[in-house]
Write a structure and sequence with these properties.
homodimer; about 130 residues; alpha+beta; Arc Repressor Mutant, subunit A; Dna Ligase, domain 1; 2 domains; three-stranded mixed beta sheet; two-stranded antiparallel sheet; 4 helices; flat; DNA-binding
DNA sequence: GCTTTAATAGTAATAGTTACTGATAGCAAA
DNA sequence: TTTGCTATCAGTAACTATTACTATTAAAGC
């Protein structure tokens, strides 16, 4: 894998983002530094960085991939009102499949949904 | 919501499937009973049934929605070799966000990834 | 510097899903 | 039962996120 300035930038953008950005958001942020970078390059590098374990790809209920700088296994909470995604701890820690599971566990993704504290306080939680 | 034969069929197909089918698989199975049913109808009804809580929409790391007849909160395991999705128990039961979370929890999705027992036994687990 | 070739910009293509349109049929009231 | 309203349907076009393609560019080793 060659060390190109584009790949380095995509990586840096993800590492500096704590809001779990999608490819479009990474593209917008990268364009501010390198205006000629192309969307395809962003997609390719995000995928490649995720495959090599440099960043993490996460999947929320909206229909696009998001990227996460945090590599260790952790849970996410996605607010259905404001759409914000945040890291949250899990009560008692994150556990694997219970007894009876004979496969090989390689990844764990936990996603909570609901309304975040901020939206409740502002009274935006809706019906 | 009107009780149409198409909607009833889509619902029945999901209820009779234990393999967490995607829209295309539901379409194929529905076509065997009602050959003129359209893809759009399948999509619309799956979405509507999920929104009204009759079935559950789940999201695996491959890029399409799957549907689940089981309404109660449960975890899934997706084998990266054969692609099969199965229900699995979680060690110690399924927990919510830990203390410090002040929002409203409405949904929990847990997805394990790896290689299933069957693929390990058959020696298909790859590198 | 020169060569090799992975990676790039730009664009076309794909896949899953949703929206649109005229026709159909479920349901309620007459 | 018949009529009217309109949600839903089949069929198709459109849309969005993502991937593939192609000529060009630029890392990295010699």
């Amino acid at each position: 894998m060659r060390n190109t300035s584009q790949r380095e930038l995509v990586y840096k953008v993800v590492m500096q983002s704590s809001d779990h950005p999608g490819a479009d958001a990474v593209y917008e942020r990268a364009r501010k530094i390198m205006p000629k970078i192309s969307m395809g390059t962003v997609y390719r590098n995000l995928k490649q960085l995720a495959e090599t374990g440099k960043i993490r790809e996460i999947r929320i209920s909206d229909n696009y991939n998001r990227y996460d700088k945090t590599l260790q296994v952790h849970a996410h909470f996605c607010c259905r009102v404001c759409g914000k995604v945040t890291d949250v701890p899990v009560e008692g820690g994150i556990k694997g499949p219970g007894s009876g599971f004979g496969g090989k566990l390689e990844s764990t993704d936990i996603l909570f949904g609901g309304v975040c504290e901020e939206c409740i306080v502002c009274g935006k939680e809706g019906a």
